[in-house]
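The authors assume throughout that readers already know how a fold can be written as discrete tokens. What matters is that the chain and its backbone geometry are given together, residue for residue. A single example would do more here than another paragraph of explanation. For illustration, here is how one protein appears when written out as sequence plus structure tokens.
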Amino acid sequence: MSDSQHDRPMNCDSPESLAAWLKDRGRAHGLSLVGVTTATSPTGFARLEHWLDAGYAGEMGWIERRRDAYRNAGGVLPGVRSLIVGAVNYRSEDPEPAGTTGGRVARYAWGQGDYHNWLKDRLRQLANDLHEARPGSRSRVVVDTAPLLERDFARLAGLGWFGKNTMLINKWQGSFLLLGAILTDADLAPDQPHETAHCGTCTRCLDACPTAAFPEPGVLDANKCLAYWNIETKGPIPEEIASRMGEWVFGCDICQDVCPWNRKSPRSTLPEVQPSPDLNPLDLAAFLEMSPEEFDSRFAGTPIERPGYEGMRRNAEIVMRQRET
């Protein structure tokens, strides 16, 4: 008998009891938050359209090409009725001082492997539990790669509200959250959407952004975002952005580091999110001595692979050059 069969309640027949059991199982699989919502059209689709029309996506053309696919979760799984949304808190250790040759790496990328893979594995375990409880049901696990507004469905599933820095914030877990979802044609009782925001008059995230990347609260202009430039782009970084990169060689956590809700969030003990010593911080002097083959050997299968060898060299050289001036 599998662990999930052993733990499955006798009365798992109703949408309410099945949803409650699956949320318990999700937490047992290491998810920090689990919620359920119906497969309604995401309320954030109109915001996505305005964001794209304003040109705030920069060169991330794949979002525009898939614009209509974000309109309805049925494009990801035909016949979908419910979504189980999971979140993992990745706030572990505090960043170590960068020193004279160190570069800061965004917290989500300094752990073991790529979160797309290990978070998807945890969600697949939960999907297997669902299939045992509902034989014949269909599901699809999504972590960033499908045209799904996961953050919007997370709010609809009651997991939190959108901060002025656009991040999903939970009162107890903060905003250092990785999101994923299971789409299913099973009927599950939904949670209440999170309808209130708790940022008040605080603007610390907006004020701290070194490039003023937020044209208004809740809207991010990728064209001014450090993380967009040092991860998603391949060419030269404009001087007005490069001059404000500071210690950030991969990504940027500034708008989360200053958020008061993250001062209250717990430390994650998940092994996958604990920082690798060579990424907290990244020794840029040693990195610049790496060959392409050494880069591939060390960073293949990790988020650092995304900008590639040349992109990371570009970033490292910018950060080191700023220290010399």
